[in-house]
Each structure stands twice: as C-alpha cells, then as structure tokens.
Amino acid sequence: MKSLATYSASKGAFTIIEVLLVIAIMLLLAVVAIPLSAGFGTNATLDDAAGALIQNMRTLHTRSVAGLDGASHSISFYADRYVLDESTGTPVEMKLPAALSLSKTIPAGTVVFSKATGVPSFTGTITLTHTAGGMRTIVLNAIGMVEEQ
C-alpha cells in the first residue's frame, strides 16, 4: 500500500507548503515593487510641470527680445499657479496640478522681461514641490536664461 505522501507526489500535485511559499514570494515582490512604482508618477508630474514652466518663461523671454507686440512680457508666481502677461492681451493663468506647490526667491513675485534685451527685472529660483516628495528647481539668471538645476 502506498503512503499518502508517495501518492500525491506521484500525481504531480502541489503541497500546501509549496503554495504558501509561492504566495509569500509574490507578496514580498509586491511590497518591494509598489513603493518603487509610486515614485514614477511623482517624477512624471514634476517633470511635466517644470518643463511647461521653463518653456513658458523661455517663450516670454524670446518674445521680449524680438520686440513682439511692442511690449514687455511678464510672469507672476503664486503658490498654486503662475500667470503669463504680454501687456497687450489677456493674461493667461497656468494652474499647477493639485499635488504641486510653487515657491520662489524672486522678491516681488513677478518678473518682467525688458523689451528688446529680454533682461529680467529680478533673478532667482522657482521651486516646484510634490506633496509625495520630490522637487524641481528652476533658475532665472541675470540675462534671462532659464534652466533646471
């Protein structure tokens, strides 16, 4: 007569210990993978918002240098948005995603790019911070160049 262990092994079935071991390994992998993948969304949100802000600031600078509309161009910074103003039209408000906040070292909170030269009225840094952690710092220098630090 065959024993129960010999019988189940010959049938090719899994034992309860093997099943529990596989479940434990899957749970361990999930515990490691979930926090790692959560950071991808945070970084993507920060990268998109920083890229859009940099592009908008560079566009305002270029339009001022080109003398477009015969006006100076400015950008104003607030905690949850920034406003683009070309002095000839309606200001355009750019809202940040809800998870982001904006801080700045620019004294007045508004930078005006001078007509023809594009020299900014103030220099400094703008920092975008995500509530889940992470930040991007954007630098505006004395000649109007904008870059991510």
Quick description:
This protein has two helices and eight strands, in the order H-H-E-E-E-E-E-E-E-E. Helices cover 39% and strands 26% of the residues.
Structure overview:
It is a single chain. The protein has a single domain, classed as minor pseudopilin epsh domain (minor pseudopilin epsh fold), CATH 3.55.40. Helix content is 39%, strand content 26%. It is built from 2 helices and 8 strands. The protein has helices at 4-11, 16-65, and strands at 73-77, 81-85, 92-95, 100-104, 110-113, 124-130, 135-140, 146-148. The chain starts with a helix and ends with a strand.
Architecture blueprint of SSEs:
Layout: H1 4-11, H2 16-65, E1 73-77, E2 81-85, E3 92-95, E4 100-104, E5 110-113, E6 124-130, E7 135-140, E8 146-148
Antiparallel strand pairs: 1-2, 1-5, 2-3, 4-6, 6-7, 7-8
